[in-house]
Input
Amino acid sequence: MGTYSHRVAMVDCIGACHVDVKATVDGPVVMGTSNPVRVGRTPGGVACNVARWLARLGIPVALHSMVGDDEAGRGLIDRLGGEGVGVEGIDVVPGASTATYTAVLDPAGSLVLGIADMGIYDRMDAGWAEGILRRLGSSLLLADANLTEAAVATIARGKQGRRLVADPVSVSKATRIAPWLDRIDAVFPDRGEAAALSGRDAPRAAAETLVRAGANVVVITLGAEGVVVADESGSTLRPAVAPRRIVDVTGAGDALVAGYLFGLAVGEADPVGWGLAAASLAVETVDTVPESVTRDLVRSRLPR
Output
């Protein structure tokens, strides 16, 4: 798995933990009628996926989220704990349903339609976030925008010198992190989210605008084109690491964030490169977090 002589930082992931249902259509998608599909269910949510990646890579990681007091919620906690994720920060809410995200994918693995039942996350308020801050033990935080605006604000204000990485999650939720860019050390929007945050359509212009707004590092994901990376020194396009095959692209963004956090946690010089390497592995399987992933496997995909 690879070893490091210096101290490895712990990571706290704050945000979504739900059941991902992936329905892959067997042939061309026909709207307005029934389509034959193959269905798989896995843990999901940005914070959850990133935490699982980090645990597979040997990074101490804790997940802070909410699930319902139901079979799905209990199953998620049992599975994540078995994978090495710290689950003490997952609150079980009586009377609530565990969140579910259903993705309809075409035969190439591209998203056709997403359906989300995320009502439980409305309970992630400022008081809940304050409780998390009181028990944090890490120097690295990930927050996703499934949190309420109040929770995002509380975490941004209370990070107290910790490095904060943020994922906007969607165009509609990206505005939750917009007021706090000057408190965010790295932000990972896709093209649409970057445009919503910056008011600029061109990715490089959007990235540079977000840096001027206060973000230390901006990484805009462009799918197969790679990523635009910007900081105070300027912006650049970094090409994607080519996968050997493409099975399902939905987990690539979370893998990118996880690889980046891994690089920060172990003191790598190029954390974005680790993110690109992890993303190339993620699209090769229907599993959001490949079971066979190791540090050495990710290292073998690092950009040359």
The first strand starts at residue 11 and ends at 14.
